[in-house]
Amino acid sequence: MSFLPLDVAPLVGDFEIPGGLTVLRSAQPTQNEYGGWDSAADVALQISPIAVHNMTGRDLDQLPEADRNSEAIRVYTQVRLYVADGGNAPDVVLYQGRKWRVTQVLDYSIQGGVYVSTATLQDVQQP
User: Fold this and answer.
1) What is the DSSP string of 4-42?
2) How much of the chain exceeds pLDDT 70, in percent?
3) Which of 1, 11, 22, 51 has fewest C-beta within 10 Å?
4) What is the largest CA-CA distance in the chain?
């Protein structure tokens, strides 16, 4: 278990990525006139302030085993990101030209209004 300082708000401001990042959020699917379900288009959100750090060492050991063989980042935001639950698709963070799927969100809103999210690499690097 990783421990964070009592007030985590400075983490976002001190290491902020200038201009913020784009997060793709899937809207709820809609039922069509034939009773089937149609996927809704992703909504692009610009989030700022945001800080991103590569996960290494002990942090990677704490990931589920299936996620350990992919790259992972930790994302600090003041806006809650979403994981896959209740039939919803997870948020996708666009960082360094690649897509990162949010797999875990820790709520530290009481300790400074920050959410600490874990995201794993979703796309395959192209040569």
Assistant:
1) --S--HHHHHHTPPTT-EEEEEEPPPEE-TTS-EEPPPE
2) 71
3) 1
4) 53
CA distance 49 to 19: 8
Q: Does domain 9-27+38-121 have CATH number 2.60.40?
A: no
Quote the tokens at residue 94.
């666009």
Token representation of residue 48: 């700022």
With 50 as the cut, is the pLDDT of residue 65 above it?
Answer: yes
Tell me the domain boundaries of the chain: 9-27+38-121
Beta strand pairing call for 98-108 and 92-95: antiparallel
What is the average pLDDT across 64-77? 70
pLDDT band at 13, cuts 50/70/90? low
pLDDT at 48: 83
- What mean pLDDT do residues 18-31 have? 81
Confirm if 11 and 77 have CB atoms less than 8 A apart. no
Residue in 121, 116, 83, 86 with CA at minimum distance from that of residue 102: 83
57/84 Cα distance (integer angstroms): 25
DSSP secondary structure letters along 108-120: ETTTTSEEEEEEE
